Structure formats: structure tokens, C-alpha cells
Amino acid sequence: GMARDYDYLFKLLIIGDSGVGKSSLLLRFADNTFSGSYITTIGVDFKIRTVEINGEKVKLQIWDTAGQERFRTITSTYYRGTHGVIVVYDVTSAESFVNVKRWLHEINQNCDDVCRILGERATFQSAQCSSIQKQTRAFTPVHSFLFRSSVKTCSLL
Hints:
single chain; 157 residues; alpha/beta; Rossmann fold; 6-stranded mixed β-sheet; two-stranded antiparallel ribbon; GTP binding; GTP-binding; nucleotide-binding; P-loop_NTPase
């Protein structure tokens, strides 16, 4: 067969409410371009990013859940073979934050041993973020970790 151009392949899902910046995050991460205009994703969108970690090539296949969240559910097909899930919410929207719990619950239903990452659209800094972080810790499962990303600057803190 053909030689693989990677050592490991990981499938990551990005989920969260519409409009919280999932697609921007995906674009930014995969192609390092930021598109200011917001277009509702139709169909399944995934991007590939290859990174080198300790001399090994790791290929990340990042799936955007493509507007499915309107139906309040994402089919189990999406979750099949997933290694990690990035849950994105908007720090300025209480509703999108509340929905994180629902997403995490759904992930627990569909994935056994998956790494959960909480991403947030950091539109406001410091004060608000730290209060949100306290709330987040309250329901973050033990094996999750939290990263803050500002989609526009692509800072992973």
C-alpha cells in the first residue's frame, strides 16, 4: 500500500451552539486564516492539520458539527472514532454557557474515553473570564482540560 505521511491520526470534533465561532476556530486552526463573516456551515466540514510532536507527525482531522446543533442533537455517527471533542461557547452568552453542560452530557452518552476540551470565544478579558472559569471548574470532568482561545488572535493560553 501507500506510505502514510503521518505517525498518528486523531479525529477531533468541534461542538457548541451556532454562532459561537466554531467555524472561525476551525479555519484559524487548520489554515491559519480568519474569516470575519459568519456563514452557517452546511454539511460536514473537516479540516486537516499536521503537527510535529517530539519528531512524530500527528495528523489532526478536525470536524465541525456543521449547524447540526440547531436540531439539538448530533448523530452518533459523528462521535464514532472520535479521540477528542472541543466544546466551544461564547463567554458573553449565558445561554451558550448553560448549553455546554448539555453538550458534555451528550458526549458522555456517545463517547467512552474521549478527551474533552472546553474552548471559549474570549470576547471580553480578565474579570468576566475568571468568573466564568470558576463556574466552568464546577462541572468540568476530571480528565478534561480548559483552554481559552480568542479566535481572532488564535491565542491558546
